[in-house]
Amino acid sequence: MKIIYVLILFTLILLSGCSTKEEENLKANQCIEFGGRWINEAYECVDINSDQCTQLGGVYDECASACRNDPGAEMCIQVCVQACKVSIGGDKDKYGCLVAAGYVWNETIGACARSWELDADQAGAARIAALPMSYRPITIVEVESLRCPGCFRVDMKRGDTEETVSIIIRNGKIDSGYNDVDVTEHICTEEESLATACTMDYNPVCGKIVLNMGDTIYRTFGNGCSACASMKVISYTPGECAADDTTDRCSDQNGNYLTLTEAMAIAKNSECGDNLITDCACPENYAKDGETCNPACYHSSPSAQNCLAPSMQCEKTYVCNEGTGTYWIDLNLTKTGCNPACVVNVEDRTAEINWRCTGLGN
Questions:
Q1: With the CA atoms of 267, 271, 275 and 278 taken in that order, what torsion angle do they form, in degrees rounded to the nearest 10?
Q2: Residue 193 belongs to what H/E stretch?
Q3: Which pLDDT tens digit goes with each residue over 76-104?
Q4: Are 142 and 44 in contact (CB under 8 A)?
Q5: What is the mean pLDDT of residues 35-46?
Q6: Is 10 helix (H, G, I), strand (E, B) or coil?
Q7: Of 32, 93, 247, 313, whose CA is between 20 and 30 Å from 263?
Q8: What SS3 class is residue 223?
């Protein structure tokens, strides 16, 4: 009798395995019919749309990490891929983990996970994200290391509603993801930082830049792609930066920077001396009113509307060249055929005179 029971059990296991394999083949064929590419070891169909993913009974991610199945990868060719995670088989363990898809209960994390996909830091982030969840079971779908130090995005699947929830972990704490948190900041991923081409559409964002000295500055970029692809940008928020976020700072491509006040002080202590032109300039026949240049007739004519010449912004006497990491400040020095400037180096904080001569007057 015992032998018969064992044989029956063995037969059921074989049938279950065949059923799972048949389902896998069915899903794979359906994926290919949709024009997608089936990744057998991950139970994924990539490069299909969300409607097709729904027909496959999967969970759709329109911008999944290209390195999601290889956590040790240092570089990805694509920024992201369209991926549909498909469940194969219906067998779950006592914790509600879908064992047929490779998920098992991880006591340390407190959730179902494919632990071999996670390094120690990712597992720690998953635990922080899963700990406050009141519903069970929870499945850790993916943990992505973000660009800022100590930052992770944890994608989890609720067992009660099958809804996927994304949680941002920053420095060991939950930063966003729950319904009661309104977060507009987008943290740049490693894949986004490697982008070599971005579209030219103007959808401005304010990029957060962390400099070598640990200070943070903000700069407006045309769109999110161009922001994340720029050196030192770790995140961005929608819209242009506030006016005072980018005022009078000059940085080089290594993240070193000087404020205009600092540059002026360095210049005055160099051979440039007191020859710096620190006040903005107005063209001939214009008078300076604060930061505005008004035509002289504004002051000589009793009726300003009779003066047809337009007002203009007062022209700054300095410029930042981020390509060379230098401030160029105009000098009140005279030399035939020359337009001298004091050049302040952002990195080594030195200054020298560049006469900018054309050679025509020599």
A1: -10
A2: helix 190-193
A3: 555 678 888 876 655 677 778 887 677 88
A4: no
A5: 85
A6: helix
A7: 313
A8: coil
DSSP H or E run through 175 = strand 173-176
Alpha carbons 116 and 195: distance in angstroms, whole number: 28
Angle at 356 between CA 315 and CA 333, to 5 degrees: 70
Task: Using alpha carbons, select from 290, 244, 250, 292 the residue that is nearest to residue 267.
Answer: 250
Per the structure, how many domains does the chain have? Answer: 3
pTM for this model (two decimals):
0.34
Instruction: Tell me, yes or no, whether 283 and 337 share the same domain.
Output: yes
Burial 280-300 (b: 16+ CB within 10 A, else e): bebeeebeeeeeebbbebeee
Please give the distance of CA 179 from its chain centroid, rounded to a whole number: 22
Statement to judge: residues 92 and 130 lie in one domain:
yes
Q: What is the domain extent for residue 118?
A: 54-64+79-182
Nearest Cα to Cα of residue 82 among 38, 50, 40, 42: 50
Q: Indicate whether 29 belongs to any domain.
A: no
Say if residues 347 and 337 touch (Cβ distance below 8 Å).
no
Distances (CA, A) of 47 to 53, 60, 362: 10, 11, 66
Task: Kindly report the number of other CB atoms within 10 A of residue 161's CB atom.
Answer: 9
Please tell me the distance from the alpha carbon of residue 93 to that of residue 112, in angstroms, as a whole number.
Answer: 10
Both 175 and 213 in a single domain?
no
97-116 pLDDT per residue, tens:
887 677 888 888 888 998 88
Tokens of 24: 């896998």
